[in-house]
Amino acid sequence: MSKFYVGSEVGQLRRVLVHRPRRSLSHLTPSNCHDLLFDDVLAVERAGQEHDVFTKTLRDQGVEVLLLTDLLADTLAIADAKEWLLTRQVSDYRLGATFANDVRCYLGDLPNIELAKILTGGLSYAEMPMKSSSMMQGIHAPTDFIIEPLPNHLFTRDTSCWVYGGVSINPMAKAARQRETNHVRAIYRWHPTFAGADFVKYYGDEEKMYDNSTIEGGDVLVIGKGAVLIGMSERTTPQGVEQLASGLFKHGQAKQVIAMQLPKHRSCMHLDTVMTHMREDTFSVYPEVVRRDVQCWSLTGDESGAVSVKEEGYFVTAIEKALGVDKLNLITTGGDNFTAEREQWNDANNVLTVKPGVVIGYEGNTYTNEKYDKAGITVLPIPGDELGRGRGGARCMSCPIERDGI
Fold first, then answer.
1. In what pathway does it function (predicted)?
2. What spatial distance separates the first Cα and last Cα of the chain, rounded to whole Å?
């Protein structure tokens, strides 16, 4: 088994990729946050402190924490990787040949850690010290962005997801997040930790127009025993599910993909905002969305990469069968209807399991956390007053790279 292996959602978590944002959050304003897919502006220092509590909690549980900015800076130290990334992220088509060249020259001379921070955190016209002969500086306001910030990099879960012995490098649905994928592409291709290591790239490694075949890691649950549960949400399409399933079957890494249809609205942007796996037989669910009548399909296939699809009845039965458990225990969001809706919005269902029955969740979701506690699930609480306003919890903020199976 390669050391890059994620065998479940609930086995002991061993290694995880996270991102502590700073520069990108300082570029968020009330006038641009919606374009950048944030509902609000965050207090930068406070969000950073909360993120530090999150990473400390992970380390206290024996998890090795990799930081995206550090990995990116190490990757940029490799000449080919640096050239590839600058050509992709500051392309002639994006900025016009003259200006793109000037920006690349300016960025190329920066220390790699500074460059990593700009690529993830953005660069405004006011922050560019060079004068270019292009028309671009003349027609833009100082607060316009040459490179848009990527505040959603905070949610490392989405851009790539490790499934059994390989990774899917995900084509993102929204323009505001598409550049994130190039950063993980470069890291998995060149960073010494990953380069030459033994793992499969199922999907998304080549640069091409993926069109409607988008998929995001928040929708992908590696439920174990060769099964994968995927939500078809606002951001993950049936086409994307089929592409990933084909890659999994082709490499003999999964036996079955269960695909669930989700409503296409922001409160349940991804499957993990309404349903997460906490122990082999236990899931947290938000019952308003994860209803009995949710449509569900089972995808199977073989090494030819062909996928066959069969509609299933009740999704819970399909999961019980895949996991070989008699009865799933579903813990619903706590409190009355109003409280449950508020806590779901604040990511009460988006917890990160670090080992069977032990999860990290926001301390503010008191009603739901109490229900978890009563069901024998230990919640390791972290503050989320600021981080939670990005609409993502502990699971969203983590990309497991190594985790035991069940």
1. Amino-acid degradation; L-arginine degradation via ADI pathway; carbamoyl phosphate from L-arginine: step 1/2
2. 15
Dist CA 159 CA 401 (whole Å): 13
Dihedral of the alpha carbons of 116, 120, 121, 122, in degrees to the nearest 10: 100
Task: Judge whether 76 lies within some domain.
Answer: no
- Dihedral over Cα of 115, 121, 122, 127: its sign: negative
* Coil/strand/helix, residue 47: helix
Q: Quickly list DSSP for 210-271.
A: -TT----GGGEEEEETTEEEEEE-SS--HHHHHHHHHHHHHTT--SEEEEEE---SGGGSSG
Q: For residue 313, with 0-12 CB atoms within 10 Å meaning exposed, 13-18 middle and 19 or more buried, which class applies?
A: exposed
Question: Whose CA is closest to 377, among 342, 343, 326, 329?
Answer: 329
**pLDDT on residue 267:** 65
CB 405, CB 224: distance < 8 Å: yes
Domain count, the chain: 1
DSSP state, residue 333: P
Residue 56 is assigned to a structural domain of this protein: yes
- The CATH number assigned to the domain holding 47 equals 3.75.10.10
What gap in Å lies between CA 391 and CA 349, rounded to an integer?
Answer: 12
- Max Cα–Cα distance, the chain, nearest Å: 69
CB 122 within 8 A of CB 141: no
- Residue 24 sits in which domain range? 5-70+151-403
Q: Is the pLDDT of residue 9 over 50?
A: yes
pLDDT at 2 over 60: no
CA–CA distance, 189 with 139 (Å, rounded to integer): 37
Q: Which residue has the tokens 């996991």?
A: 323
For residues 207 and 196, the answer to whether their CB atoms sit within 8 Å is no
Total residues found in the chain within this entry = 406
Domain contains 349 = yes
Mean pLDDT for the chain overall: 95
Query: Which residue of the set 33, 161, 296, 396 is catalytic?
Result: 396
Please confirm, yes or no, whether 396 is among the known catalytic residues: yes
Name the 3-class secondary structure at 157: helix
Alpha carbon distances (Å) from 71 to 61, 75, 112, 206: 22, 6, 11, 20
Residue 53, helix vs strand vs coil: helix
The helix (H) or strand (E) run that includes residue 88 is helix 79-89
Quote the distance between the C-alpha of residue 148 and its chain's center: 19
Cα–Cα distance measured from residue 237 to residue 224, given in angstroms and rounded to the nearest whole number:
22
Is residue 245 in a domain? Answer: yes
Q: Which residues, in sequence order, are bridge partners of residue 164? A: 6
